[in-house]
Design a protein that fits this description.
With 65 residues, the protein is mainly α. It has one helix at 6-64.
């Protein structure tokens, strides 16, 4: 039977906590980047819809002329 080493256990716990903090920071950064990208896509979609509407209006105007 092996001897329980408290110092080794504490080192492992600290390493796990450090890994958790790194993963949490990475997750937070990815989440913020995703939210920013989603907002940018929303803005681009709105701009494209505006361009499409202007093109349709010009086509309608050209067909009526």
């Amino acid at each position: 039977m092996s001897q329980f080493d408290l110092a080794e256990f504490e080192a492992q716990v600290h390493a796990l906590l450090a890994a958790h903090r790194r993963l949490q920071a990475n997750y937070d950064a990815l989440k913020a980047a995703h939210e920013a990208q989603t907002q940018r896509h929303r803005e681009i979609r709105e701009r494209l819809n505006g361009v499409i509407e202007r093109i349709r209006a010009l086509e309608t105007e050209a067909n009526n002329a």
